[in-house]
Amino acid sequence: MIAKPRTALVDAIGQRFGKEFGGAAPRWFFAPGRINLVGAHLDYSGGDVLPMAVDRGIFAAARLRTDGRIRLVSIDQQLRVDADAATMPARTRPEWGWAGYPIGVWRGFRERTGKGDGVEIVFGGDVPMASGLSSSAALEVVTAIALDALHDTQLERHQLALLAHRAETGFVGVRCGIMDQFASALGRAGQVLLLHCAGPRWEHVPFDPEACEVLVMDTLKPRALAKTGFNERVAQCATAHELLRTHVRDLPHLAQYTVADLEQAREAMDELLFRRARHVVGEMDRIRAGVEALRHHDYKTLGAMLDASHRSTATDYDVSCDELDVITDAARAAPDVFGARLTGAGFGGCAIALVRPGASGAVAERVAEVFSRRFGVRPTFDLLRVGTGPGELGS
Ligand code: GLA
Hints:
Blueprint: E1 2-3, H1 8-21, E2 27-36, E3 48-49, E4 51-65, E5 69-74, E6 80-84, H2 100-113, E7 118-125, H3 135-151, H4 157-172, H5 179-185, E8 191-196, E9 201-206, E10 213-218, H6 226-247, H7 259-264, H8 271-295, H9 299-315, H10 322-333, E11 337-342, E12 350-355, H11 360-375, E13 380-384, E14 391-394
Helix pairs in contact: 2-3, 2-4, 3-4, 3-5, 4-5, 6-8, 8-9, 10-11
Bound molecules: alpha-D-galactopyranose.
């Protein structure tokens, strides 16, 4: 069990729980958000990714109910939802908003385990919402962990990750890959996750917080196009894969092809699909180099892979924007920065910079100056550390 932190956030969740539901004390759970070091947009193409579960995420105070109601409250969002377990639809409802994620997990959990009791949960988070740090995956995973513990079903962590992923794709309808839910569910202290999405298979690789810290830079640009743009990239990769299968050779995943394969299929693909596929294939090389570097404690080379990854997501994959390009360029120009790239799906939101420990304040100052001169907006910064992973919180 993880010790329950004594913070204003946890106090606020506890108070709200008492006010909404009263009665005996709830049980407490936590699931982290994530940043992804390298491996941008590879998970849904069967590639490898290298996410780190961070020391921020979503907390939940939870208790089962006997009346078949699912009552969800978030202290960060206005909405409170009261749903009926007996009349659960197959898809979320627009009026449920953010609660579609936990309700989708509840539904998948009932399908998998046959346990369909009602539940009451108050959520609260210290990971910024909708910025590319996977607050939604953390919300799903914390729900899955809570249901598993409250029912004592003892599912494996990767099974909880899959439940969480299905809630997002099947119930909410975002065609995301498995990275975010696996990163949150399988996070471990002092380690990053090397996830081979084609299996899926995974291993943990040590990350040294003494060698390098992660500065998160929020452009404050809303990710307005993220959903449509994301689903469009998924569809383009599927088409590119189909063309490679018919024109070159039949491999199960786009990420398994080589540059030579792409050249062979060049005639059959239009220029846009070619660039999308080139990002995927090139990013696989970058992740191999990035993991090697991490294993050898070479944060300089790891940083160079972040830079190259950003370039490719900007030019070949077209998921960057001026704000993300300017903020990462400004970070790279500062001393003590190993590398920088956008994080999450892109289209706005946050970028990360790997920075020599102790230098983040000065880097943030320089970046803020350059960015506000250009856009008239001061970005916000956060220093994230590799977290302890998810779990139940003891008192
Ligand atoms: C989002 C998706 C992930 C992944 C990333 C891009 O975060 O939810 O599955 O595709 O974008 O790497």
